[in-house]
Amino acid sequence: MKKINIAIDGPSGVGKSTVSELIAKKFNLKFINSGSLYRAISLFFFQKLGKEQFKQILDEKYVLDNWNIKQLFLDPFGNLFLDNVKIENKDLRKDEISWGASKIAKYKLIRSQIVSFLQDYSEKEKGVIMDGRDTTFVVLPNAELKIFLWASAEIRATRRMEQNQELGFKTNYEELLKEIEERDFQDMNRENDPLHKTDDAILIDSSNMNIQEVVNKISELILERINNE
Ligand code: C5P
C-alpha cells in the first residue's frame, strides 16, 4: 500500500493521540505525538524547580537559558528520552505538566527547535501520522491528508475526567473545564503559530462521535488519498 503523511491538529483533549495511534496501527504508519515534546520540556522544568517555582519562573529567558533540545531523543519506535531516561506517558499527562507545556509552547525559539526536531525525524521516511497544534501548516505543510479534529470544551473536559480516573488522578470537572478553556485560549491566541484550521484541512467535529467513528471517518479519507496518489 502507498504511504502518505497525515497531519492532525486540534485543541487539547479532543482525542487526536488516541485516534492517531489507532490509525497508525491500522495503516502501518509511524505515530508522532508532537505535544509530547512540549510536555517533556515542561516535565524537565517541573522536576528541576518543584511545583511552586515552576508556576512562577517559567519565562522565556529562563527556559532558553536552562534548556537544550539535545536533552531530548526520540527513538525509531517513538519512545521519548529526557537526558537518556525514558519518559513514561503517565508522567507527561499530569495537569501541571499540560499547563507548563502550553506556556512553553508560546516561545518562538522553543517552537522552532521542536519543529526542526520533528521535521528531521519524520523526513527519514514517508508514512507518518503526526498530531499537534501546528502540524498541518508548520511541521508537515505538504502532508497528503490534513485533519482538524474538534469537540466542545465541555465534552473534552468530561472525557479528560474519565481518562484521569483511569490513570488514578482525582480531578474536579469545573477545574478541568477552566484549564481546558485557558489552554484553548493560549493555543489559539498566541503570537507564534496559533492553532487554527487551514483551508486545506478537513474538519471533523467529534462532539457526538466515539473514537471508532472518528477512526472510520479518517480511514475513509486515507483510502481516498491513497487511491488518488
Ligand atoms: O497535544 P498536547 O495536549 O499533548 O500538547 C501539549 C501542549 O503543547 C499544547 O497545549 C500546546 O500548547 C503545545 N503544542 C503545540 N504545538 C504542537 C503540539 C503541542 O503548541 N504541535
UniProtKB/TrEMBL annotation:
Q: What is its EC number?
A: 2.7.4.25
- Which positions are annotated as binding ATP? 10-18
Q: Which Pfam families match?
A: Cytidylate_kin
Return one GO MF term.
Answer: kinase activity
Q: Which reaction does it catalyse?
A: CMP + ATP = CDP + ADP; dCMP + ATP = dCDP + ADP
Q: Which residues form the Cytidylate kinase domain?
A: 6-222
What superkingdom does the record give?
A: Bacteria
Q: What SUPFAM superfamilies would the database entry show?
A: P-loop containing nucleoside triphosphate hydrolases
InterPro entries cross-referenced by the UniProt entry:
Cytidylate_kin, Cytidylate_kinase_dom, P-loop_NTPase
Enumerate the UniProt keywords alphabetically: ATP-binding, Cytoplasm, Kinase, Nucleotide-binding, Transferase
Where it sits in the cell: the answer is: Cytoplasm
Q: Which family does it belong to?
A: Belongs to the cytidylate kinase family. Type 1 subfamily.
Protein name as annotated: Cytidylate kinase
Q: What is the organism of origin for this protein? A: Mesomycoplasma molare
What gene name is given for the protein in this entry?
A: cmk
